[in-house]
Amino acid sequence: MRIPELLAPVGSMDHLKIAINAGASSVYLSGKNYGARKFATNFTLDEINDAVDIAHMHNVKVYVTVNTLIKEDELEDVINYVSKLYSIGVDAILVQDLGLVELINKHVPKLKIHASTQMTCENKLKLDYLEKKGIKRVVLPREMKKEEIKALNTNMEFEIFAHGALCYSYSGQCLMSSFKGGRSGNRGTCAQPCRQKYQIEGIKKEDYYLSPCDLSLFNQLKEISELNIACIKIEGRMRNKEYLAIVIHAYREALNKLKSEKETKNENINLVFNRGLCEGLFNDSPKRSLKSGHVGLKIGRVIESKKNQIAIRLTDSVKTIPEKGDGLLIVKNDEDYGFEVSQNPLITSLNHFKNGKNKPMKDLTRKNKVLIIKKVWQNKKSAFDLTKSDVYLTKRNKLNKKVKEIETKGSSFIKSKLILTFSIKNKFPVLKGRLTLANRKEFECEVIGNTPFEKPLKKSVSKETIKKQLQKIDNYPYQITQINVNYDGTLFIPISKINELRRNLFKKLEKEVTNSFKHPNKKIRLKHFNNTNNKPECNLSFYTNNLKHLEHIKNVKRVYLEIPNNDDSLIQSKETPNINYMINFIKKAYEISYDKDYELIWKWSDITHDELIKSLNKVRGILNKMNYNLDIMSNSFNGKYGFYSMNITNNETISSLKNYEILTLSPELSKKDYIDIIKHCRYPHKIEILVQGSVELMKTRYPLLYDTEVKKNYENYLIDKKNNRYPIHKSISSQELTIFDASELSLINEITYLKSINYSNFAIDGRYKNDDYYKMIDIYNNAINGKIDEKKLIEYSPKNTIANY
Fold first, then answer.
1. Nearest Cα to Cα of residue 29 among 4, 5, 3, 55
2. Comparing C-alpha atoms, which of 134, 109, 208, 116 is closest to residue 168?
3. Neighbouring residues of 462: CB distance < 8 A, sequence distance ≥ 6
């Protein structure tokens, strides 16, 4: 059994101390820029330096998030920032951008890199690529199931999220905030549109369809420890200190008990902020949140509601009983009613309640308890009948005491071992220390006092007194394992001088420890390549999953063909895709395209877990034997054609993906970004831009509808409060859904300009479009030749946007 590292979120210096005291093995934090939580307090470089020193003294590692996508004009700044982090002594950085990985390997090669969950590393192909790039740890997607994690094989460490918020989309694959509100999750400014209510066309009920319950794998720690997982991560750099203290302390306590193979229960984690807790996809048991805010601990159900009191039948397994000053939330269907308990509630048995006696129950471990809460004027009114409502405990006053205790009396998870040796040399006191950190680094220091020992006028200082003074550790995270006192007890020195000697040694050891993690800082200058390629030949590419399109397509260089799922239900399936269906679809496509003038490329799903890859490779093998040979579009980091889901935003990323012939830039980019990239691009012929089509806003493995609520009377559209209709489609694996933008991206009026700055490859996305959408090709070929016809374009795409451009 391997007890995993416990990684805590830290949004400020105060939170750092709480995380250490609560028992974190490591912490992750961010500077003011390049972190995926732009709106957290975050740290200046000086504060990061202090945080690293404090953490290392407490045997806690510090990982800094540099996990946003990096734009071309930021490359030099970000690599110098990373170089500074290395000089400060951070233990690793978390990275999303593949180009930044390349820069670090070149300029700061000894710095450990952890692949952020934003990289979406869901399969062995991606892991193999990252391992070759020297990545030391991968934060796996929160969508990975335990069986999938168990099957992965790599020399890199695995880190998984164990507690905190769940994004509806795969991290790094969400453009919803960016396209709806101009705030990019890939740039650390997510506006969380997933926490809003939506409708599904055909279903009247508005609900939090895109908001999963928060994750908690607290009850799965034994299973986790039996997997090849090095680290469990707690999410929550934006949450308050109560959340941090209670959650980290609970997980530390549980992990410690695992060593002796004991399991533990803890209801406190339900009482700090959560949207309801579930085990997500780890155990394939996701749930939708009841509301966007805090829900708390479910404690029971209202069995009677009168004018002056509420009676709640408590769940037998619940140990935490509400008291005066605690907060309750009563939920029924779409309505809720929250209030603070104003008087001490009465606890009676169900039998007594039914008989109208309401005799107080003394043994609170008994089953069938009823909690009776008296209403006072502050909480007499509710807008609905509370009977048969679920009851949640949302606030627990007693937790404040626990948090304060952790904040002030906690201590680091592992203390450094210290051996002290006291002696006298030429009448002056000498104190030596040998300190051993948790990572087995050893430090030896010696200090000499400036006041000599003298013959006593009245009383000498005993050996025991010196030992007693040396045992004081002040606020240092040391465990003194041995004190040697080489002194006969016949001389005198003021006690204050012994204390001063001890303090001087501790300070010297502290400096030795913190300096041991530092490195020289170097200023890095990047050489910019200037692209002088003029007037390249322009090419069009067309995405489709419609065989009828293939019959009519002409005057394009490439056709990217995706196999559509032949099940239009929004319910994800656990079945593997139909091999025969895929083979027949590709065969038909190949036969239609055989004598056409375009190159046919099979576009694989953007999310390809290893089981799907096995199926796709099986199809590919059968097709090859039949002489149906197609190139593949894959975002495996090691393919030939790359979709925009690879999040390419700079030339370093383009250069790093050497195997690719075509790479599509991220549609999140602005006009300025496009200019910056092409200006310094060594391989302009490799770059493609999406100029027309519905952009994929979310890719998810979480259900939109659950089996229990499905009657086939809906359409595959998500509708927001502004009545925008977002098409939803199921992937070929049947395990993922993709939500597309309500408008089409259309850069038809920018084609002339993009050509003038040397872009030459343009793509139209015709997937899930009408049979005549292929006519968009002629519209764009004319635009490339200077003839722009917006009226014609609107016939096939009436609702358009230039999005972030």
1. 55
2. 208
3. 489
Under a CB-based contact definition with an 8 Å cutoff, are residues 42 and 66 in contact?
no
Query: pLDDT tens for residues 437-450?
Result: 999 999 999 999 99
pLDDT per position as a tens digit, 1-59: 889 999 999 999 999 999 999 999 999 999 999 887 777 778 999 999 999 999 999 99
Describe the strand order of the beta sheet including 478-486 as a list of residue ranges. Answer: 442-448, 428-436, 416-425, 478-486
Report long-range pairs for 108-111 (Cβ below 8 Å, ≥24 apart): 108/79, 108/82, 108/83, 109/134, 110/86, 110/519, 111/82, 111/85, 111/86
In the chain, % of residues over pLDDT 70: 99
The answer to whether residues 444 and 55 touch, using CB atoms and an 8 Å cutoff, is no
**Of 120, 117, 132, 175, nearest to 609 (Cα)?**
120
Tell me if residue 400 falls in helix, strand or coil: helix
Q: Which residue stretches of 166-317 are H helix?
A: 176-181, 221-225, 241-259, 268-271
Closest CA to 763 of 689, 657, 658, 671: 689
The CA angle 220-221-227, to the nearest 5 degrees, is 95
The confidence score (pLDDT) of residue 376 equals 67
Complete domains list, the chain, with CATH: 5-166+213-267 (3.20.20.380), 297-319+321-395 (2.40.30.10), 416-516 (no CATH), 539-697+728-801 (3.20.20)
> How far is 136 from 128, CA to CA, in rounded Å?
12
The structure tokens listed for 514 are: 């913190």
pTM beyond 0.85, yes or no: yes
- 161 bridge partner residues: 233
pLDDT given at position 188: 87
In 3-state terms the chain splits into helix, strand, coil percentages (rounded to 5) of 30, 25, 45
**How many Å apart are CA 129 and CA 39, to the nearest integer?**
32
The first and second tokens of residue 378, run together, are: 């502050």
Burial class of residue 130 in the structure, from the number of CB atoms within 10 Å of its CB (0-12 exposed, 13-18 middle, 19+ buried): buried
Sign of CA dihedral 77, 78, 83, 88: positive
Pairing of strands 5-9, 231-234: parallel
> Which residue in 651, 642, 649 sits closest to 683, CA to CA?
651
Give the tens place of pLDDT for each residue, 561-571. Answer: 999 999 878 88
Q: Is the pLDDT of residue 385 over 70?
A: yes
Mean pLDDT across 667-681: 97
Tens digit of each residue's pLDDT (9 = 90 or more) over 183-213: 998 998 898 999 999 999 999 889 999 999 9
Per DSSP, the three-state class of 603 is strand
User: What is the pLDDT at residue 627?
Assistant: 94
Average pLDDT over the chain, rounded to whole? 94
